[in-house]
Amino acid sequence: MPKAEWQLGFEARASFRSGEYLRALKYYILLCMKVSRTAYFANVVLLLRRLGLNEYAEEMNVTAWNASASILRCFVKSPVVVSLTSYPRRIGTTAVTVRSILNQDVRPDELILWLSPDQFPGGIKSLPDDLQTLQKQGLDIRWCEDNRSYKKLIPALKEYPDAVLVTADDDVDYHSTWLLELLVGHLLRPKDVIAHRGHRVCRGADGGLLPYRQWLKEVPGSLPSFENFATGCGGILYPPGSLHPDVGDSTLFNEICPHGDDIWFWGMTLRNGTRVSLLYETDFRLCTVPGTEESSLWIQNVRQGGNDRMIQALLQRFPEILSRLPPCAHAEAKVSIIVPVYNTASIHIQQCLRSLLSQSYQNIEILCIDDGSGLWETLGCLQRFLLADKRVQVFRINNGGPASARNFGISFATGEYIAFVDSDDYVSPHYIRDLVAAIRQDGHPDRQVAVAGRILCFDDKSQSQSKPSGYEGLKRLPPMEVAREAIHTTGVSCNKLYRSSFLRENGIRYLNGERSFAEDNYFSALVAIYARGRMGIADESCYCYRQHSESITKRIDWAGIQSAALVYEKLKAELVARGLPDLNYWHSAINRRALKDLRYNAKGIDSSGDAMANVFRRFSSRIDVCCIADDKYFLPTAVFLETIRASLGPYTTVSITVLVPQGSFAKMSSLSGQSSEKFSVRVAEVAVDRFEGLHKYDSENSFCMASPSALIKFVIPEIFPELDRILYLDTDLMVRKDLLDLYMAPIEDVYLAAVTDMWMPVTDRVEVKRFGSYFNSGVMLMNLAAMRRDEVPEKLIAAKARSTNFNLMDQDVFNEVCHGKVLGLDISYNFLPVCYKRHKHRFRIDVMNTLYGSSYPTVEAMANDPAIAHWAGSDKPWKTAETLFAEEWREAYRRLEEAGVFVQDEQTVV
After folding, report:
1. Which among 359, 545, 355, 541 has a CA at the least distance from the CA of 453?
2. Theoretical Cys-Cys bridge with 481: which of 233, 268, 548, 746, CB 3.0 to 4.6 Å?
C-alpha cells in the first residue's frame, strides 16, 4: 500500500538525520512525484549534493522545480524496461509478480513478459485470465526462442540495447519502492550493475574460488566490486553496455551454464570490466509467491553442486574472469591473535587455544604473553601448545597486568590484523573469518575495525547470557556520533579485529600497568575516536567471555573506584597532549562514560557521600555558551542566565560569555556576579565598527526587532579562536533543561546545528520559501573550526552588505551562507511560544512531524515540555503574562530580584 505524504515526509526527515542519504533521497523523490512543493525539490537537490552528484543537483535546479511528474527523467535519460519470463509450472502465479511491478511507486517505461510459443502453443489464450487482464494495465507479453531462464534478459538486450534493463523473477512479490531503489542506486553508480541482493565470491588459499556454499551469503549493501555476485530473485539493473557482447551467444551459455543464468550474467559483467553494486538502505526483503518454491533449481544447483560445476566451466573457458578478482581476498592476510596469560587454569587455556587453532581461517599467529605466571600448570600447558603447532608463540615477561601484556603483543605482532582474546575465554569456529570478511567487506581500506556481533557471558556456575555487541544501533549515525556512542556503549576490546597499521599509526595502546575495571576503556575510547565509525559488524561472530567472581572487573572497592577514575583522567590528559580537535566534545564523551561506570560500580560501596561526590565532580562536562546583549537588555539577559544556571544537570558545568558592543560594558559587566561553582559568566566587549552601515535600520518602515549588535554573531568564530564549537543562544529565551545533549550534537561535517523556524509552514516570506529548511538563528550550535576554515565570517558580512531586505538582522544571511551545511535539530531546542499562540490552529501535526523528523501525536504535545522556549516576537514575558511559559520566566526573575540583582532604576517587569 502506498504511503501517505506525512508518512513519507517523516521517513525522509528521519533518514536524512540518521545519515541514510540514499533512503532519504528515495522518499523525497516520491514526495516530489506526489506533491509539487518547492521544499521537497530543495531537499532532493541538497541530498544530491551530499552524495556528490552536483551535476544532477544543478540540473534539478534548472529543470525540475515545476515538473514533478518528470523528476526521474532528470536522472535516468534512457528508457527503463523491466523484463521477466515464466514457464508452464509457474504461469499460474506469475500475475502476482507482474501486479507488484505494475503497482510500483515508479513504473517502468515497459514491462515485458517473455514467453516461448513452444511452451504455450495456444498463444495468449492459453494464459491465465488474470495475466491476460494485466495487459490492459501495462503488461506487454512477447514471444521468443525458448532459452529457459535466459529469456528474462537476452531478448530484451537485443530489442533495447540502449535501455536501462531490470530483470525480475516470476516468483517474487516486490515491494512498492523496489524499482525506485534500483534507479536511485543507478543514479549513484551509473556504470555499475545494481542489485538488491547478492553474495560475496570468496577465494581460497590456493587462489581458486571456494565452493559456492562457502561464499558469504546475502551480504549487506556494499561499494562496487567484482566480488559481488548479484542474485536474480532480488532484481538486477543492467545499464546500457554493462555486459560483454558474448552474453547473448546461446551456444556458449547453453554449453557452459545451462541452468545458471545468474552465473553467466555475472561472468559477462566481469569480462566487460563492470562491477556489481549491492544496494544499502533498501527496504527489500525476499518475499516469494506461495506455491512456487517447489519448482526452483536450488537443490540441483546448490545442494548437488551444479553451481560449482558451471562456475568451473565458466572460468576454464574465460580465465580472465578470475584475474578480475582480488587475490585470496579473505585468506591471504595474516591475523595476529594476542593472548595475555596469568596463572590461568589449564582447562581454560586449552579451551581458548583450541578454539583459535581450529578456526576456519588458518592464516594466524597466536602470541601468548605470559605475564609472570607462577603456576607450573599454566606454564606447562603453554609449552605443550608451543611444541604442537608452529603458529603458537610464547613470550614471558615480568608481571605488569593485562594492559602491559597486550601492548607487548602489539609490538611483536606481524599480522595485517590484530585481535585480542583473554586466556580464559574462547571464540566461535568462524570468528576470525567473519571478522576479516566484515573489515574487508567493501574491499575498502577505510574500514579499520570489525566487531563481533555477539558476546556470550559465562559465570563460575557455567550459566550463560547472550549480549549484543553494543554497535548494532550505530551503523547509520554520523561519524562523530558513532564515536561518541561507542565510547559510552562499550569499552570491551577483546571482541574486535583491528588493522595493525591503524593502531600503530595512531599510537593506540593500552595504559601500561593499569589494573582496574576500566583498563579496556582507555584503549577502546582511542579506537572509537580515531576510527570514527569506520567499522564493520560480523553478525555471526561470537566472543565467549568467562566472568570470574574474583576477576579485576568483579572486585570493586573504594580503591578500585579511584583507580578507574584515574584511568579516565589519564585518557583526557592524553587527548590534550595529542592536540585533538574539538577537545571539549571528546572530554564530554569520556566524562559521560566515566560517570556511567563509576555510578554503576559504586553501588554498595561503603564510602562517604562527600568522597564519592568529589570523584564524580571530576567528570563534570563543560559546555561553552555565548550570547549577545547590550545595556538596554540587561534584565532579560540576567534572567536568561539564571534559567541556564537552574537547568544544569548534576554533572554539567557551563562557561558562558556575554558579548556586548562598545559602550555597554560598564553596565553589563555586573552580570558576571551571577557566576557560581558550576556556572561561569564572563562579559566581553566587542568592537562593532566593522558592521557600520550593514543594516539600514528604519524605525518606521523596518520590522526588524533585533538590535544591530546581533551582527556580532557573524564573527563569533574569530572571537573564540581557541574553541572548535560553541552554543550560541539569544537572550530573549528561557532554558528549561540541561544543554549537554544539545551541545554534543555531531557537527563534524556542517557549519552549525539549528532548528527549522516554526514560522516556516505559515509564512509567506519569499526568503523563507526558497530554502528547503529555513532555520531560526536564535539557537545555533556552531562548528567554529569549520567556519574559520571556510572563512564563513567574511562570507556572512559580505552577504549582509549585498542584502536589500532588512526585515531580519542576521537570520536570512545565516540561512543563505550556511545553506546545505546545517544539521537539523528537534523543535524542542527552539520552541517559539508566540508562533504557537498565533498559529496553533493552522499547524497540522503531520506537516510538523515531517518538518522536524519527529513523532508527536498532537500539536499540543509538541508544546508541552520544550528544552528551550524562545520569545522571537513582540510578546516578551517581561512585557506580558499572556504568553506560554511566562510564569516560569517570572519565577526566575523573582529569584534574581530576591538576590538583589536588579536595582531601583532598572527596568521592571510589567
Report:
1. 541
2. 746
In this structure, what are the phi and psi dihedrals at residue 110, rounded to the nearest 5 degrees?
-140, 140
766 CB contacts (<8 Å, ≥6 apart)? none
The residues spanned by each domain of the chain are 5-74, 80-324, 335-554, 556-619, 621-898
* pLDDT tens-digit readout, 789-814: 999 999 999 998 888 776 677 888 99
Mean pLDDT (whole number) for 665-671: 94
Phi-psi map region of 681: left, alpha, beta (phi>0 left; psi -120 to 50 alpha) = beta
Strand boundaries in 248-299, DSSP class E:
276-278
Beta strands at 364-370 and 392-396: parallel, antiparallel or unpaired? parallel
Per the model's pLDDT, the better-predicted residue between 835 and 68 turns out to be 835
Using one digit for the tens of pLDDT, what is the confidence trace for 167-177?
999 999 999 99
The full DSSP string for 724-764 is: SEEEEE-SSEEE-S--HHHHT---TTSSEEEEEPTTTTT--
**Cell for 695?**
543594516
Output the nine-digit C-alpha cell for 176.
512498492
Domain with residues 335-554, CATH architecture: Alpha-Beta Complex (3.90)
Looking at residue 620, what is its pLDDT? 86
What span, in angstroms and rounded, lies between the C-alpha atoms of 130 and 587? Answer: 65
Q: Would you give the DSSP letter of residue 203?
A: B
DSSP state of 1: -
Give the 3-state secondary structure percentages of the chain, helix then strand then coil, rounded to 5: 45, 15, 40
- Contact in structure between 238 and 210 (CB atoms under 8 Å): no
Q: What pLDDT, in 10s, does the model give residues 357-367?
A: 888 787 899 99
Q: Are 393 and 369 in contact (CB under 8 A)?
A: no
Q: What are phi and psi of 549, to 5 degrees?
A: -65, -20
Phi first, then psi, for residue 537 (nearest 5°) are -120, 125
Angle at 597 between CA 349 and CA 473, to 5 degrees: 85
Region for residue 388 given its phi and psi (left: phi exceeds 0; alpha: psi -120 to 50; beta: otherwise) = alpha
Specify the residue for cell string 558592521: 691
pTM of structure:
0.62
HSE-CB of 66 using CA atoms within 13 angstroms: 0
Of all helices (H) and strands (E), which one includes residue 619? none
Residue 515 burial (CB count, 10 A): 15
pLDDT reported for residue 428: 87
Secondary-structure class of domain 621-898 per CATH? alpha beta
Which residues have CB under 8 Å from 611's CB, separation 6+?
558
Q: Amino acid letter at 265?
A: F
Residues 6+ apart with CB under 8 A from 518: 491, 563, 564, 567, 568, 594, 597
**What is the β-pairing status of strands 236-238 and 775-783?**
unpaired
The CA-based dihedral angle spanning residues 832, 834, 838, 839, taken in that order and rounded to the nearest 10 degrees: -10
The mean pLDDT of 70-98, rounded to a whole number, is 87
Taking Cα atoms as reference points, which of 740, 479, 782 lies closest to residue 587? 740
Domains 80-324 and 335-554 equal at CATH topology level: yes
Architecture of domain 80-324: Alpha-Beta Complex (3.90)
